[in-house]
Design a protein that fits this description.
Structural class of chain A: alpha/beta
Oligomer: heterodimer
Largest interface: A-B, 5 and 6 residues
Number of strands of chain B: 10
CATH topology of the largest domain in chain B: 2-enoyl-CoA Hydratase, Chain A, domain 1
Strand content of chain B: 15-25%
Number of helices of chain A: 11
CATH topology of the largest domain in chain A: 2-enoyl-CoA Hydratase, Chain A, domain 1
Strand content of chain A: 15-25%
Shape of chain B: globular
CATH superfamily of the largest domain in chain B: 2-enoyl-CoA Hydratase, Chain A, domain 1
Largest sheet of chain A: 6 strands, mixed
Distance between the termini of chain B: 29 Å
Number of helices of chain B: 10
Largest sheet of chain B: 6 strands, mixed
Number of domains of chain B: 2
Shape of chain A: globular
Strand order of the largest sheet of chain B: 1-2-3-5-7-10
Order of helices and strands of chain B: EEHEEHEEHEEHHEHEHHHH
CATH architecture of the largest domain in chain B: Alpha-Beta Complex
CATH architecture of the largest domain in chain A: Alpha-Beta Complex
Strand order of the largest sheet of chain A: 1-2-3-5-7-10
Order of helices and strands of chain A: EEHEEHHHEEHEEHEHEHHHH
CATH superfamily of the largest domain in chain A: 2-enoyl-CoA Hydratase, Chain A, domain 1
Radius of gyration of chain A: 19 Å
Structural class of chain B: alpha/beta
Chain lengths: 258, 256
């Protein structure tokens, strides 16, 4: 694996753990960091030994926002030519399950990064929010879009306009996070969850993710079409034969991801 | 360092003394800010394992300084001043003791109620003074009081606003101990030092989840207990407690 500057990675028991690692700046998300996350995601997505990915920060901050110093002097044309969001777009193409484990501050770009995860676990003390309005800008990596899809336009506008922090409890109420966990155990619980799904049929995990992500952005009719094709597709897998056979033989299945 | 309070730490205990004795330690906007800063400091300081809040002079705290506020919007005074202070106090995962040396009135009583323990001097008294000026109990008072003394008694205290003595407070279960005036500080000191030598992490977890129990059902609390026990089971103090038990000696807890 490449030598990373802004993140740390390790693979443990079939789970890849990616830790954002710029503790001096509360894990502020620089462009370099996003490129590294993308690179780690893509590597682990192809890596056979990895069944799921856990993304986390540290106890104080998942990521307190984007790196402001880096973009302060930018103009519209530089940003267009830089095309930094290409890396962000790629984060959504990962086929394996991505579990986010959030402690502390999760603001701005950090919140957007968390929203790229499939499942989110948060500490009781985690705080989410889009403070961009206070800097005279707005979210640029999907914040307005994803928040709106999760909580509806009225709620989203309130949070985006005020820029105030949201507690884990509020985030859960709006369907932003799956589970609230004790601060000491966020990563551990996320890893445990990742290991639980790592035992499931890999192709099913993959096609369910594709179907659910597609359903969130398309009509019921279109979603059902894709679901059907994916359902049929699994019938050409060895795991489907094994899974159904094990069921009738009343034993545990052994899935191979084929 | 502070203008309206005094902050000192000794033997693992942070002592926060409300220090406007001529005004019976009534709250001002500055005092809210300083209390918040002092509580944050005590919460962060790894060497601090218990916190005492007390008052200088003859009062614990007489509540809001009604003469000091130019702001007629009481809602904002609460949102900006009292509420962050109470939230901070409750979120500190260390034992906080109110050493109630004299009268605790209005928001002064609320402050005492938000603490984890109350030790009262025989000279102490508690009074839900709000009603006497046509106001309602605030600063968490309506939350803590019924939880501490039960709904019926809380209504009685809040609506009638009658002063209760230290002994009556003890009967209600509001205070842990009533001490004679001469022995009061020593009693508080002994109690605080005792707490500061206990397994701090476990105390913090008990505080966190006992507070959460009020808004949770049994299955949630059972899960909280499992999470808390897992965390506590990983502390050095747990190991120390078990070895001390096996070796039949007194444990030396470090709070880690």
């Amino acid at each position: 694996m490449a030598d990373f500057q802004s993140i740390k990675t390790k693979v443990e028991d079939g789970i890849a753990l990616i830790e954002l690692n710029r503790p001096d700046v509360l894990n502020a998300i620089s462009r370099g960091m996003v490129t590294e996350i993308r690179s780690a995601f893509e590597t682990f997505d192809k890596h056979d030994a990895v069944k799921a990915i856990v993304l986390t920060g540290n106890e104080k901050a998942f990521a307190a926002g984007a790196d402001i110093d880096e973009m302060m002097e930018d103009d519209a044309v530089t940003l267009e030519l830089l095309n930094q969001f290409k890396d962000w777009d790629q984060l959504h193409t990962i086929k394996k399950p991505v579990i986010g484990a959030v402690s502390g501050y999760c603001f701005g770009g950090g919140f957007e990064l968390a929203l790229c995860c499939d499942i989110l676990f948060a500490s009781e003390k985690a705080q989410f929010g889009f403070p961009e309005i206070k800097l005279g800008v707005m979210p640029g990596a999907g914040g307005t879009v994803k928040l709106t899809k999760l909580m509806g336009p009225k709620n989203a506008l309130e949070w985006l306009w005020l820029g105030e922090p949201m507690t884990a409890k509020e985030a859960q109420k709006h369907g932003i996070i799956n589970r609230i966990v004790a601060p000491e155990l966020v990563v551990e619980e996320a890893m445990k969850f990742a290991r639980t799904i790592a035992d499931k049929a890999p192709l099913s995990l993959r096609l369910i993710k594709e179907s659910v992500r597609y359903a969130a952005d398309h009509s019921v009719q279109d979603g059902m079409q894709l679901e059907r094709k994916n359902f049929y597709l699994l019938f050409s897998s060895e795991d489907q034969k094994e899974g159904m056979k094990a069921f009738t033989e009343k034993r545990y299945p052994h899935f191979k991801g084929k | 360092m502070f203008e309206t309070i005094n902050y000192e730490s000794r033997a693992g205990v942070a002592w926060i003394t409300l220090n406007r004795p001529d005004k019976l330690n009534a709250f001002t906007a500055v005092m809210h800010k300083e209390m918040l800063a002092a509580l944050k400091n005590a919460g962060r300081d790894k060497d601090i394992r218990a916190i005492v809040i007390t008052g200088a002079g003859r009062a614990f705290c007489s509540g809001q300084d009604l003469g000091s506020s130019d702001n007629p919007d009481y809602g904002e005074v609460l949102r900006k001043g009292y509420n962050p202070m109470i939230q901070e106090l409750v979120s500190i995962e260390k034992p906080v003791i109110a050493a109630v040396n004299g009268v605790a009135a209005g928001a002064g009583m609320s402050l005492a109620l938000a603490c984890d323990f109350r030790i009262a001097s025989e000279k102490a008294s508690f009074i839900e003074a709000f009603i006497h000026v046509g106001l309602v109990p605030d600063s968490g008072n309506l939350y803590f009081l019924p939880r501490l003394v039960g709904h019926a008694k809380a209504m009685e205290l809040a609506v009638l606003g009658e002063k209760i003595s230290a002994d009556q407070a003890k009967e209600l279960g509001l205070v842990t101990k009533v001490a004679e005036e001469e022995a009061f500080i020593q009693e508080v000191e002994a109690f605080a030092v005792r707490l500061a030598s206990m397994p701090t992490k476990a105390i913090g977890l008990i505080k966190r989840y006992m507070n959460k129990s009020w808004e949770s059902d049994l299955s949630e609390v059972l899960e909280y207990e499992a999470l808390a026990q897992k965390t506590a089971g990983g502390t050095e103090d747990h190991k120390e407690g078990v070895s001390a038990f096996m070796e039949k000696r007194k444990p030396a807890f470090t709070g880690r």
